[in-house]
Amino acid sequence: MTRPLEGKVALVTGGGRGIGAAVVRRLAAHGADVAFTFQQDRQRAAEVAGAVTAAGRRVLAVQADSADPAAVAGAVDRAAAELGRLDILVNNAGAFLLGALQDLSLAEFEQTVAVNVRAPFVASQAAVRHMSAGGSIINVGSNAAERVVFAGFSLYSMSKTALIGLTKSLGRELGPRAITVNLVHPGATDTDLNPADGPNAATVTGFTALGHYAAPADVAGAVAFLAGPDARYITGATVNVDGGFTI
């Protein structure tokens, strides 16, 4: 198998499950050594780490709360120190809080913004201190930033929309350093939080041109492409991996 990321080091936030875990596995399969953060589930984190080791790559699992900016920056610095460098940052960790506008609390607002907006900013700020030419930052957003078909998404959609501005601005700022910054918008993806056989799955699928949920590996494939050499002239872009939900 071609290993286009051989010799690279990546950090994936929220890499202990779901899309993040699939990204960790795919980057390792493409030859990268991978650090990832997780919040609580040590058993799942160990399973993900084991998959990286089985692929013949080095791995570092860091328990860190993405709502804590010091923990986020510390995870970045630790990954660079222990794995020797940092070439790829995937801002994947997210908070998914839904509710009617009048029912959302200020604490829920602050939690969502802390994880979905502040953490990618802080991680990117820390990462670029370690990155050289050829580095890449990939933000993981949501197709809810572009199309909302259900009520209750105001807070979540707002937070994910912020990543569009962050991605474009950092793409412009870091372009002279040959560091690319791109955004992946997943659609409905079969994870524990949003299973393909869940109560709203049939309705969601009805809005999707391809008529089914994505697998986490589908999103991971797009992330790995944007992290690799074939995407070296792509920056500031948004890639929708949503089966045509936003058509």
Commentary on this structure:
By secondary structure, this protein is of the alpha/beta class. It has one domain: 3-Layer(aba) Sandwich (Rossmann fold), CATH 3.40.50. It is 41% helix and 14% strand. The chain is built from seven helices and seven strands, in the order βαβαβαβαβαβααβ. A seven-stranded parallel beta sheet has the order 3-2-1-4-5-6-7, with helices on both faces. Helix 1 runs parallel beside helix 2. The longest helix is centred in the middle third of the chain and has 22 residues. The chain is globular. The protein starts with 8 loop residues before the first strand and ends in a 6-residue tail after the last strand. The mean pLDDT is 97.
Condensed summary:
It holds the Pfam family adh_short_C2. The chain has 247 residues and is α/β, with parallel strands linked by helices.
- Please identify, by name, the CATH architecture: 3-Layer(aba) Sandwich
Radius of gyration: 17 Å
Q: Please, what is the oligomeric state?
A: single chain
Q: Helical proportion?
A: 40-55%
Q: How many DSSP H or I helices?
A: 7
What is the CATH topology? Rossmann fold
Mean pLDDT figure: 97
Low-confidence stretches: none
CATH class bucket: Alpha Beta
End-to-end separation: 34 Å
Classification by helices and strands:
alpha/beta
Output the strand order for the largest sheet. 3-2-1-4-5-6-7
- Please outline the major beta sheet: 7 strands, parallel
Count of all domains: 1
Shape: globular
CATH superfamily: NAD(P)-binding Rossmann-like Domain
- The succession of helices and strands, N to C, reads EHEHEHEHEHEHHE
Give the amount of beta strand, in percent. 5-15%
Q: What is the β-strand count?
A: 7
InterPro entries: NAD(P)-bd_dom_sf (IPR036291), Sc_DH/Rdtase_CS (IPR020904), SDR_fam (IPR002347)
Family: Belongs to the short-chain dehydrogenases/reductases (SDR) family.
Protein name: SDR family oxidoreductase
Keywords: Oxidoreductase
